[in-house]
Amino acid sequence: MNAKKLVLILLLAGTVIALPFINRSVFGTDAKVVNVSTLSQRVISPSILASGFLAHEEEVMLSSEVIGKVSQLFVEEGDTVTAGQLLLQVDDKNFIAGLEQSEAAERINTIDIERQEVRIENLSRQFERSRSLHERKMIGDNEFDNLKNQLDLARIDLKSSTERLTQARAQLDQVNDNLSKTKIVSPIEGVITSLDIKVGETAIASSTNIPGSSLMTIANPASIYTEVLVDEADVANIQIGQRTEIVAIAYPDQPMQGVVRYIANTAKIAPGRQGLSFTVKIEITDPGDVVLRPGMSCRAEIFTRQDQEVVAVPIQALIFEEDRSALRSEYFIFVNDGGIARKTKVEVGISDDEYQELMTTIDDDIEIVIGPDQELRHLLEGDKIDTTRIELQ
User: Fold this and answer.
1) Which DSSP string do the residues of 93-140 spell out, in sequence order?
2) pTM flag (> 0.70)
């Protein structure tokens, strides 16, 4: 090995050995490189996140009140309909036959009453003549009483015929009502969102979910809203009229604007959730470019208080310590005290996703350690720090 190579190796070795000593003389052995910043005013919007889905506020599922085959269908799925529009016709032949039978029964009873009235009129005249004769002892008591009984029975028969006529008319009204139910009309203005029956299939009068019991579903597209489930721990912070941002899963980058319009009074256990939840309905005030479709999953951020400008620090700058045995929980921050980290207890207030309000008064020129996270997690009281000043945006 020549002399030049030997000198070069010795210089490199000496530099490596000397670096730690140079580090100690300049920074100290325990200096940690951290980011610091001073306090600033921030606009914080505290909020609650909740998940749910889109639904129609005005939606009806039509079913038949009579049993019969569908003879005509006047709409298709997706059609726009108006209130009172004829949508479907159930075969009405049997109902028309029943109507004719009931109308005939009404006529027969009407004729019977007319006959009873004529008979009573004749018996009344005979009774008046017989009473005059009876008073003059020209007819006996038996004959007079017999005529009186005939008149009384005729009047009873008239009452019976009148009741039968009332019964026939009630039956006629019922038949007419059933006949009218063979025509299914739209109760609202909207769009056919689901058509569940075809011509030739039998419509069944039933509230159970069996084939034929559901005819179609109509919804008002202008009445779409968001329904979310809010945990019982958060529901106390929600009020009618609060501003919300809604994000449909299908449109993750297009938040919609909304307003809280309804908060349920009773909690329920929702499928897939452990605790109790309250249903909250949110009116969509500005859907933007989102194509709203009922059933879409969505997430809503409900802003529980108005935007406020407060003194705040980044959430990652806060250190939370809890002593469960002493029922104590406290927040701390580290401040820069001439290159030394000082752990300082603070009180905090409202927060959003990034910042937390600082309730404790701290001088504006004091530098607060805000990161990086890997250094902040292991920072201790009295540690030496090498700071890099960062202006919070």
Assistant:
1) HHHHHHHHHHHHHHHHHHHHHHHHHHHHHHHHHHHHHHHHHHHTTSS-
2) no
